Structures are given as C-alpha cells and as structure tokens.
Amino acid sequence: MGSSKTLFFFSLFCFLAVALTSALVEETEENTLGLAMNYYKDTCPQAEEIIREQVKLLYKRHKNTAFSWLRNIFHDCAVESCDASLLLDSTRRELSEKETDRSFGLRNFRYLDTIKEAVERECPEVVSCADILVLSGREGIVALGGPYIPLKTGRRDGRRSRADILEKYLPDHNESISVVLERFGAMGIDASGVVALLGAHSVGRTHCVKLVHRLYPEVAPELNPSHVEHMLHKCPDAIPDPKAVQYVRNDRGTPMILDNNYYKNILDNKGLLIVDHQIATDKRTKNFVKKMAKSQDYWFSEFSRAITILTENNPLTGTQGEIRKQCNVANKH
Ligand code: HEM
Ligand SMILES: *[C@@H]1O[C@H](CO)[C@@H](O)[C@H](O)[C@H]1NC(C)=O
C-alpha cells in the first residue's frame, strides 16, 4: 500500500518534471528566433494544411509553379531576411526586388496570391506572406519528389522591397564560387550546405541570356562537348532576344524531378552556370559533390538542413513588420 502510494507520487513528480522541462525547452526554442514549429496552432490551426492543398491543386494545373515556390525561398531569404519583400510591387518611390533585371526569370507570383487568398478566407490577417512563401516552397519541394522538411513559422512581413540591395546579397548568374561561399557563409550555411542547395538546379530552366557568355565568343573549355552541342542548339544566337523564350533545361535527364542527377551532371561537365562547374572541381566543395552524386539520401539530408537555415535567415518576428493583407502591397498605415 505504502509503496504504491510512493510510486504514485514519484510518477506524478516525473510527469510534472518532464512536462515542465519540455514546456521550458519549447519556450526557449521559440525565443531564440521568435519562430516556432506550428506557430499558428491556436490562431489558424489549418494554415499549413490549406497551403499544402493549394500547392497540390496549383501544381496539378501548372507543373512549373513548383520551381517558382522553391526558387522564391532563395530570392527572398538570401536578401537580408525571409520577409516576403520579394513579393512587393514597386511603389512610386522605390523599384522593388522582383521588378529588376536581377530577378529575371522569376515567375508565377500570381499563384502565390491564390494561396494567400485561400488562407485569408479561413483566417484573415493572421498568416504572413513570408510564412506562405516559405511553406509553399516546402510543399513545392515535396511535389517535385524532394524531401519533406519540417519548418518553423512565425515570420512577419517586411514593409519595403529595395532593388538596390540585391547586388550586395544575391549571387549573380556568373558569380564565382568564392563569392557564393562567402554570401551563404554569412547566413550560416557552410560549404556542404551550399553544394546541397545548388542541387535545386536539378529542376527548371535557364534562359539563354544567362548562358551565352559561356558559349560566345568562345566556348568555355571545361564544358562537355556533347553538352555544348545541345546548348548551342538551344541558344543559337550570341545575343539572344531577351524577350524570346529561349532556354536550356537545368537537368535534361529528369527536368521535373528534384533528384541528385544535378551532381552527376556537373561531374560530367554538364553544368550550366560557372558555379556549377566550380563546385565540382574546387577542393572546398568537390568531395561533397561526389558524396551527393552517390547518395540521394545524403543529399536530401544536407538539402533539408540547408533549407532550414536559409528559411530562418534573420526573420522579422514579434512586433516587427506586419501581417500583410495582400502579398504584393504593404498595408496602409
Ligand atoms: C549561387 C547561387 C545561385 C545562382 C547564381 C543561381 C542562378 C540561377 C539562374 C541564373 C537561374 C535561371 C533563371 C532563368 O533563366 O529563368 C536559376 C534558376 C533556378 N534556381 Fe537558382 N541560383 C542559385 C541558387 C539557387 C538556390 C539556393 C535555389 C533554391 C534553393 C535555386 C533555385 C532555382 C530554381 C528552382 C530555378 C529554376 C526556376 C524556373 O525554372 O522557373 N537557385 N538560378
Ligand atoms: C556578370 O555579368 C554582369 C552582366 O550581366 C556583369 O556586369 C558582371 O560584372 C559579371 N560578374 C562577374 C563576376 O563576372
């Protein structure tokens, strides 16, 4: 009798201790960044599910939306903060990020509005565009056959989009590996993480305007001759008409699937960008390329780790920023 009572109190004590510690851990986890897993669990519990469903519906109708969801993560989060500044239209005073040359090729923004509208119908003015951008990217990765990545939420939206800061943060199409490693390094992404993120170029396309510098006036000597033939066929003019839709698929083999084919391609000198060639040969990165070419699982785990860091880059939280009503315009004050 006495011992069962002791056991009862001991169990109760253990239970309380565990509950209390996990509550504390949860709180500190949230406090380090202001982001948390399932941040909308009380305010909009169905948010993540709505975004998932919308991405599935949109993907069914327009397969290339998934490339855009994924690429948006890079173009928003790498530029100062994951604050959906990428989605803002220019104002009379300021040219926005998405409306400059450096955002060339980004597409499908209007479908992000479709997702935002679906979320607003259920929970008006609760879920930020920054979280919708990140979570649609996460679901886009799944649609393309990539890994499911658990991600925190609670990001708030920035009020400004500044085209003039892109140069400082966003590596250009012709950027060298050293600059690329430095830029991502500043966000806490190491060499292996950079190599893993570039595996996103296993889907989608690159327009000839971003490639011709490797073909004309001379062909870059490192390129695989069979790939050169293909690139010249797709990009027959040294100065392509920027309005013409001339492009080469990033991965000719499986252009719609997020797989580790990218690494096999670049080891075979079939990369499109300078940095693709350089990560396969530079001593800081080539061993990661080989490992990711060999193991899709290894790539998936490094890709998930790097996407997590990228999507937690310097978020606005708490009372910073705002929850935009419409993703392309800041709220009026
Ligand atoms: C050094 C870093 C990077 C550079 C220089 C770079 C450059 C480019 C360029 C030039 C294009 C072609 C755009 C066009 O012609 O339409 C492209 C496409 C793409 N990039 Fe990157 N990128 C980088 C990193 C990333 C990262 C980190 C991601 C995702 C996490 C990403 C995802 C994509 C996707 C999905 C596409 C295909 C888009 C489409 O077909 O609509 N890129 N990138
Ligand atoms: C990349 O190309 C742009 C023109 O599109 C040029 O202004 C810039 O200097 C080039 N950067 C590098 C690193 O070569």
UniProtKB/TrEMBL annotation:
Entry's Gene Ontology BP terms: hydrogen peroxide catabolic process; response to oxidative stress; rhythmic process
Site feature location: Transition state stabilizer: 71
Active site: 75 (proton acceptor)
Entry cofactors: Ca(2+); heme b
Listed PROSITE patterns: PEROXIDASE_4
InterPro entries assigned: Haem_peroxidase, Haem_peroxidase_sf, Peroxidase_pln, Secretory_peroxidase
Catalytic activity: 2 a phenolic donor + H2O2 = 2 a phenolic radical donor + 2 H2O
Residues reported to bind Ca(2+) 2: 251, 254, 259
Any Gene Ontology CC annotation: extracellular region
Cofactor binding description: Binds 2 calcium ions per subunit. Binds 1 heme b (iron(II)-protoporphyrin IX) group per subunit.
Alphabetically ordered keywords of this record: Biological rhythms, Calcium, Disulfide bond, Glycoprotein, Heme, Hydrogen peroxide, Iron, Metal-binding, Oxidoreductase, Peroxidase, Secreted, Signal
Pfam families: peroxidase (PF00141)
Source organism, top-level taxon: Eukaryota
Annotated positions binding substrate: 171
EC number(s) reported in the record: 1.11.1.7
Protein's UniProt name: Peroxidase
Organism: Kingdonia uniflora
